[in-house]
Design a protein that fits this description.
alpha+beta; 8-stranded mixed beta sheet; 3 helices; about 35% strand; globular
């Protein structure tokens, strides 16, 4: 199998399922660990990451792979946020990585994040992923397996749940 290890550009974490698997869309399957990152389209590391995706696609599908990715003939893991009906995705690109295995979750110093509330939808993060090409009947493209995630900073919580600290600070 053609695959390449890479670190994603930094972005805002969404749909965070890094401590326990998310609910499966298909009830016959197990849930998976996953994370979606929204990334600014002008992020300085995005072009290099896009090149890695194209490289993996070209190894599997040949010289026309780049055009096939651009035309939507191959599934591209770097997607246009404007196709999502979510204000947090507008004007950004997004990527989703999944795994059957629990990813490592670390902080800025690469130390394990122990408190699950410290890594949430809305925090700034990046992921270590395996980019791979696949071909199944009627479905081919490039995808990513989640290996580990790194929290890079705090951001606005998007889960709709505020922290206890902010809830009780107002009550003084």
């Amino acid at each position: 199998e053609i695959c390449m290890q890479a670190v994603t550009p930094s972005g805002t974490a969404h749909y965070v399922n890094v401590f326990r698997p998310g609910k499966p869309m298909d009830e016959t399957k197990d849930g998976q660990y996953s994370i979606t990152l929204t990334i600014a389209p002008d992020h300085p590391k995005l072009a290099a990451f896009r090149k890695k995706v194209e490289e993996v696609a070209t190894l599997k599908f040949g010289a026309k792979a780049k055009q096939m990715l651009e035309k939507g003939q191959l599934k591209n893991p770097i997607r246009d946020g404007n196709e999502k009906d979510d204000e947090h995705f507008q004007g950004k690109v997004f990527i989703t990585a999944r795994s059957n295995d629990k990813p490592q979750v670390v902080d800025m110093d690469a130390e394990p994040v122990m408190d699950q509330d410290d890594f949430y939808s809305g925090c700034l993060a990046r992921a270590d992923v395996y980019i791979f090409a696949y071909e199944k009947p009627g479905n081919k493209g490039v995808s990513m397996i989640l290996n580990s995630v790194q929290k890079l900073g705090d951001g606005e919580r998007l889960a709709g749940r505020r922290s206890a600290a902010s809830a009780f600070a107002e009550e003084d």
